[in-house]
Write the structure tokens for this entry.
Amino acid sequence: MAAAQNIVILTGAGVSGESGISTFRDAGGLWETHHFEDLASPEGFHRDPALVHRFYNLRRAQLHSVAPNAAHLALAEWESAWAGRGNFLLVTQNVDDLHERAGSKSLLHMHGELRKLRCAACGTVTPHLADASVDMRCTACGQTGYMRPDIVWFGEMPFHMEEIFTALDKADIFIAIGTSGVVYPAADFVQQARANGRACHTYEINPKPTGSSAFGTVIAEAATTGVPRLMREILG
Ligand code: ZN
């Protein structure tokens, strides 16, 4: 029996972009008329929570009009096909729910999720698909005015970092798909994987490669074609 092969895959905005999800810089034009700190920081939320809710309500509403693409579907298929061969972990920087809707199970949202709210008073996270507003009450602690998007904002620590770095330390294959390569700590994942002593194979799939020399294989292709192709190649 062949040795276990552990895979860690990181997806970024390019994967959602092919489903028609605009980056938050396009959402509703608010990004153009407001400073990013007003829309995506704890201080901005403190100053004007109604504005921040409006911004994320627009983004959350966008989820209804998009569907998983061939890259999302291939990653879900890959996970099923990998059962028994090793660990499979999908890490996404995307805050939409397209990986879940495609069927991915072993999935970590390092930047949070649009379809969840978090109470800033007690920390309780609840699924929430409708518009959110300032006067919402937390069902756990009963306080009003603390419900915020469960999104990692500027100046906040990404979620699940310990779990992600533990997986990178055991990874035999690391693949970054549609990520800009400039947002830390995700930009360091490839280095972490390469340094783990397991001769980890590293791949980048991106129509506009980041230019990082840390990747052993660069596939300059859209995720919708590059992911299914690499999956077939690695599955054999
Ligand atoms: Zn609460």
In short: The mean pLDDT is 93. The pocket of zinc ion is lined by residues 119, 121-122, 124, 138, 140-141, 143, 146 (CB under 6 Å). The two ends are 15 Å apart (CA to CA). Strands lie at 7-11, 88-92, 107-109, 112-119, 125-127, 147-151, 173-177, 201-205, 217-219.
